[in-house]
Amino acid sequence: MNERMDDTYFMQVAIEEARLALEEDEVPVGAVLVKDNKIIARSHNSCEQLNDPTAHAEILAIREASRMLNNHRLIDTTLYVTLEPCPMCAGAIVWARIKELVYGALDPKSGACRSITNLVQHPALNHRVEIREGIFTRECARMLSGFFREKRSRQGG
Amino acid sequence: MNERMDDTYFMQVAIEEARLALEEDEVPVGAVLVKDNKIIARSHNSCEQLNDPTAHAEILAIREASRMLNNHRLIDTTLYVTLEPCPMCAGAIVWARIKELVYGALDPKSGACRSITNLVQHPALNHRVEIREGIFTRECARMLSGFFREKRSRQGG
């Protein structure tokens, strides 16, 4: 498989995870962690269910992969996530020494890889992450805007 | 008790937590979450033991308090932590809607409340945290510098 096919496949798995979040009435964000072309963790946002403000898809995937690899550094891994990571997740990505980050939709309100700041390539921090953007951007964004539109209409009704 | 006495007492508990981290050969950082003048969670950095890069003192305290309160928003709480929070923890503090943050030592390398950036009062994010600084600054910093000095000398020897 070439790199492009990998990105497409793994992002589709992340989108499947986001759909699971949607079914559970969670903000639909999914993440997949990949090492040596194999999925080592997959997860979706579960803040409401777990009563845990840190239970974003990325944090759950990082925690699962660290447990699995018995190592809190996830060297040579790629994280696929349907939404640009927030400051908390961007910070966790740096601490975990993740090599590459591939995200779908931009998050203009709290994205911390480009939108409001860039923490995964911050000059002061001791690790910098390679970023690939633009994969299934519209699909990922559509799922999120649909979720919030429905939520608003329920609250209004 | 006046506010100043509270700060002193709760920061001393956070320092006790940092000492527990030190005994476990973890980076000595401790945190205490307080609501209505009572401690609702206390924790210390446990990244090595838990094989979890997200297991900073602040994240563990937020997760514990959210479980305890059955709510992923920690309204009207104060977080005491011996070190200026990093980007990951600063992000989590904002998501948890923590009201006040009191920290001991500054972290010039990765502090995200003043040193390399200020995420807990970021104009783009939808919650801003009040900060109090300067409580047991030297004690907190001394514990950290001692830990890293000892670690370096062990590695060199």
As laid out across the biggest beta sheet of chain A, the strand order is 2-1-3-4-5
Give average pLDDT of chain A, whole number. 95
Largest interface: A-B, 39 and 39 residues
Please state the CA-atom Rg of chain A, rounded to the nearest Å: 15 Å
Q: Given the C-alpha coordinates, what overall shape of chain A results?
A: globular
How much of the sequence of chain A is in beta strands?
Answer: 15-25%
Number of DSSP E strands of chain A: 5
Portion of residues in helices of chain A?
40-55%
- The assembly state of the depicted protein chains is homodimer
Main beta-sheet strand count, sense and barrel state of chain A: 5 strands, mixed
Query: Total helix count of chain A?
Result: 5
Order of helices and strands of chain A: HEEHHEHEEH
Instruction: Give me the secondary-structure category of chain A.
Output: alpha/beta
Give the low-confidence spans of chain A: none
Characterise this structure.
The first copy, chain A, is of the alpha/beta class and 157 residues long. Chain A has helices at residues 3-23, 47-50, 57-69, 87-95, 137-156; strands at residues 30-35, 38-44, 77-83, 100-105, 130-133. A five-stranded mixed sheet of chain A has the order 2-1-3-4-5. The termini of chain A are far apart. The relative contact order of chain A is 0.15. The mean pLDDT of chain A is 95. The A-B interface holds A 47-48, 50-55, 59, 62-63, 66-67, 70-74, 86-92, 94-96, 109-110, 112, 115-117, 119, 122, 124-126 and B 47-48, 50-55, 59, 62-63, 66-67, 69-74, 86-92, 94-96, 109-110, 112, 116-117, 119, 122, 124-126.
